Amino acid sequence: MALSEQTRERIESIIGGDDVVLFMKGNRAMPQCGFSNKVVQILDSLVEDYTTVDVLADADIRDGIKEYSAWPTIPQLYLKGEFVGGCDIVTELYASGDLHRQLGQPVPERKIPTVAISDSAAARIREYTARAPDKELKLSIDARFQASLGLAPRQEHEVEVEAGGIRVLMDYATAERADGVSIDLVESATGAAFKITNPNEPGEVKQLSPRDVQQLIDQGTKFVFLDVRTPEERATAQIAGTQLLDQATGKEIEKLPKDTMLVFHCHHGGRSQAAAEHFRGRGFTKVHNLAGGIDAWSREVDPKVPRY
Amino acid sequence: MPLPILNSADDVCGALRAAIVAALPDAQAQVTAAGPGHFEIEVVSAAFAGLSMVRQQQLVYGAIKELMAGDGAPVHAVDRLRTRTP
Q1: Could you tell me the residue ranges of all domains in chain A?
Q2: Is residue B4 part of a domain?
Q3: Is there a contact between A83 and B61 if contact means CB atoms under 8 Å apart?
Q4: pLDDT per residue as tens digits for the range A198-250
């Protein structure tokens, strides 16, 4: 399929618009294919901000980019307007440190992480690997510190560690987040399950009551107080000293030091919990949720704030 | 030029080899089938000298692109592509 002039211009404008541009299936928050996801994981661990283009949402781009790059598959990574490669090549470049260099980042010391596996977990794992002799145990920890275990064939550029007599493989990005991880087997109502404990995970979102937050204000504690509701709700009732979390404010927050104290609120505490989890996933370590939201604030701290 | 009807994985392997050699006359190409529509390719050619991995692979993909074109294409995916100089 020929590349129309219009599509070519669109592509050139996209790849010229950001240093890092990834043509992928799905988007950064929700990749729709394993290879695209792999590249997203790698980029997430290297750069805060980058552009992704969902080829599933645009047939012209989907076909056009394959012509433009002379490359038949998706994902495709462009750095500073130059085509770098697909998933395999990006994985190679990440492993060799070349990707870090191209992005002006220091090449990390590749430390081998220490992983512990309890006896009961190891025994269960051996049962699985016995039935799948060509597969190895893989540990995967994404940029949001979500961990998973699986069985898969060995691939290139994997870090290998031994734990509890079991060989564990992981990609380089996971290895950087895995030092001190322990894997255990726990009983639950639905049966036994693996539990992965990672000391490197940023702390949980903490709940604060309206009185707790008022106390922080009275003490002069420095924190960013964010309202995640709609502008309409905000017009109805707001807490003094809060900022609306719109896209522009979100970008400003990303730039703050990761130990900045953040407190999120909404109407009842649900949406703000989700917002808080998002920023925790972005690496912020002091993230709090106002339990009960502005509704509880009105009832417990400041009845002058209207309830709705 | 209309493509011949390719009935078996062997046919497709042969077509891939032929396409690669047509574009890179000195190339030694090894093509193995790895499941329906999936192939693994290794190409050795002096034409790769001095080229980055991406450029080397672009040469091979360029050579085989007709075999990958369209919904019913005989080559759905190249699972592994190795390129090197002799």
Answers
A1: 5-102, 115-197, 206-300
A2: no
A3: no
A4: 988 877 899 999 999 999 999 999 999 999 999 999 999 999 999 999 888 98
Chain B CB contacts of A72 under 8 Å are: 61, 65, 68, 78
Could you tell me the residue range of the domain that residue B75 belongs to? 9-84
A89:B65 CB<8 A: no
Superfamily of domain covering A206-300:
Rhodanese-like domain (3.40.250.10)
Judge whether A70 is closer than 8 Å to chain B, CB to CB: yes
Query: What is the side-by-side order of every strand in the sheet holding A206-208?
Result: A206-208, A286-290, A261-265, A224-227, A243-244
The CA-to-CA distance between both ends of chain A, in Å, stands at 57
Cβ A70–B62 below 8 Å, yes or no? Answer: yes
What domain count does chain B have?
A: 1
Q: CB neighbours of A218 closer than 8 A, spacing ≥ 6?
A: none
Q: Per residue in B43-76, pLDDT tens?
A: 999 999 999 889 999 999 999 988 988 777 889 8
Q: Half-sphere exposure (CA, 13 Å, Cβ side) for A153?
A: 3
CB contact A71 to B (< 8 Å): yes
In a domain, residue B43? The reply is yes
Pairing of strands A224-227, A261-265: parallel
* Entry pTM: 0.61
Q: Which residues pair with A78 in a beta bridge?
A: A21, A83
Smallest CA–CA distance, residue A93 to chain B, in Å, is 10
CATH architecture of A115-197: Sandwich (2.60)
Partner-chain contact A89 B54, CB within 8 Å: yes
Residue A120: Cβ within 10 Å count: 15
Q: Does domain A5-102 have CATH number 1.10.10.10?
A: no
Does residue B1 belong to any structural domain of this protein?
A: no
